[in-house]
Amino acid sequence: MRQKNYKPFSTTEDFSNIDHIVIGSGIGSLTTAVWLAKSGKKVIVLERHYVPGGFTHSFKRKHGFKWDVGVHYVGNVGPNDSLKPFFDYLTQGKLDWEYMGDVYDVAHIDGKVYKFIAGKDKFINQMISYFPQEAQAIKQYIKLVENANKRSSAYFFEKVFEPILQKTLGKIIKSRFKRFAKQTTFETISKLTSNERLIAVLCAQCGDYGLPPKQSSFAAHALIVGHFLNGGYYPKGGSEQISIKTIDTLNELGSKVYINAEVSKIVISNNKVTGVIVNNTFLPSKSIISGVGISNTVNHLLKGQDNKLSAINFKAIKPSIAHMCLYVGLTKTSEELNLPKHNIWWYDNDNIDAILNDTPLDEVSDKFAYISFPSSKDPLWEYYNPNTSSIQAISFANYKWFQEFEEEPWKKRSVKYDSLKQEFETKMLEKLYSLYPQIKGNVLVTEVSTPLSTKHFSNYKHGEIYGLDHSPKRFIESDIRPKTKIKGLYLTGQDVTVVGVGGAMMAGVLSATTILKMNSWKNFREMGRLKNKKD
Length: 535
What we know:
Blueprint lengths: L6 E2 L11 E4 L3 H11 L5 E4 L11 E3 L5 E3 L15 H8 L5 E3 L3 E7 L2 E6 L2 H11 L4 H23 L5 H4 L2 H13 L3 H6 L5 H7 L15 H11 L4 E3 L4 H13 L3 E4 L3 E7 L2 E7 L2 E4 L3 E3 L3 H8 L20 E9 L3 H4 L5 E5 L4 H7 L5 H4 E5 L1 H4 L3 H4 L4 E9 L17 H21 L7 E7 L1 H8 L13 H5 L12 E3 L9 H16 L3 H15 L1
């Protein structure tokens, strides 16, 4: 059994000479920590949960089953893809990826099936085969996706600029990006085509960023589509390998991750950080990096203290979508049950906005389901979990549906709460049986999570999974940067950039670069040497 590479927080530990304290252990936080540690800094990471990794961690249940909580696939990590060197740098090249195959997503809409094929030209040709009269629109759509992504790279890098560059070159960069960000996905695509089914298919992956076409920013949509255009990958050994291998690197560099470390306050004086309160103990530090989301940072960790961040208007930018999930453990292998590697996006009809906005709780699994097969994607599953397989079936949720139960204790909530979960489980299992009848009679373990589960473990107040929502307002009306207006306080994670493992990781790079300034180029050089050595 592998020895844990993290430990519970204890006041008996030696916390002297700490250069940086990182709050939260998601991939954004861990990336920031590794980059700082590789520059010779002493860093500690404080995690309130009893397992580190944020949305990259997995959880285990009886009979040896495990499921990931947020990583269902990752793009741009193929041998020649742009994110691969960053993950290799974080993990010393010890994180291996499994290719999901030519088909990475499949959309089921009103009984018809549409495959998403890896590779730009193959993707275009596949879509044209479904919509031969829309060939020009499909080609123009991909061109818009590419152009938006080109602008996004500069837009995010601009976040490390000092004020003088922000006011000059930064203005030009942001204006070019916002041309794509200020319009919704539907506004942009409907200028190319009026075909409702084509629009629905092109927007089928909207669950990856949490907003339907008429509410999401096209820039966010383009980032996700572009991210997976060369195919999807899954970490060999499960999603937790991302954080495990990254924490290994951190330990080798002399820095540590502590669990059961509840940070209740970032202490500031004269608009400067002085430390944090963790488990009712003051821990001094002149540099704090928060990876728990901008809303949690401002409304919780800085609450009651006069500071220059409290003026941020969160009414304009809502929290992202919440979800429910059915976790299923099966008594046969993925091969025996013929379970696919690709993900399923199942919609009852073309009107994705109506489905995600107007569907009541008792109909969610009748209208939308996202289905993932961790055991099929992971080539090591059979080694660790012989003769079994697993499925995750997800639908959206409204936190208000469960708000009446939020004060009830975890695992001891009321019968009414449990009955709502049971109803969801029953209907979602029926959905799975209709799509994969061969699994019937082979279900051994089931479990349901709700937005309250997400809130309990991640501390997101509305059970959201993607931080701030990816609407045009997020990019137009906010300017969230790693460096805050409080001296010594920095931000990392998906709120700084965009949703997803790749987005959060790049936020970690930006945060570390903001702190290290020109010294960060040593990290980039080392990453380049590692890449050349592997090549």
